[in-house]
Amino acid sequence: MGFEIKDFKDPESLARQAARDWLENLAVENSATAPYGVALSGGRIAGRLFSAVTELAGERRALLGAVHFFWGDERCVPPTDPESNFALARQRLLDPLAIPPSQIHRIHGEEPPAAAVAEAESELSRVMVSRQGSLPILDLVFLGMGEDGHVASLFPGEPEAAASAPALFRPVIGPKPPPRRITLGYSVIAAAREVWVLASGSGKEEALQKSLAPNGATPLARVLQMRPHTVIFSDLARG
Description:
alpha/beta; three-stranded antiparallel sheet; Rossmann fold; six-stranded parallel sheet; 9 strands
């Protein structure tokens, strides 16, 4: 378990620095031959990130030429629904930067969950050819964090058998509306080359503290314990 915390005074500065860091990483790793896979998150801080990336990309839009966009989770709603994580990304990032449809791999939340999971797994495995055994490896996973320490749609209190399942994606019933969701599994998040957590929003201070503890039991804590290094961008007071 290892993590790096970057502290910010407000959500705007957090989102802008995360956007700047991502574009700088793309400038270093940019490849015309290999796809670069990123999994996006939802929520207000993700919306701020998308807007910042769009603003800062400017003449550097070519950096996104090899980026393939996936999602860490999606609500089981149509892609035009205001609750859709894809809809947020399309409005703030994908359409403004004219990302080609061939690079967008949304989770089809409007379909029956089993079908949506099968499609999402097939698409991830097709694009991100395995670099480590049979598991496709994403280059970067963005995660938000909820007041209960949940990440993606991995919530506290689920049975260990479900949490430790090797599935790339799986359907879940969450405690927050809309409850029916599709989420990446822990194994894919843990295996990603980089995971950046955007911990922002009032009421989340205690959840972050619990997640950073060596014996933490939140979903974020589980991710941190499964990885050698994770970057946390935070505007939360930690005492």
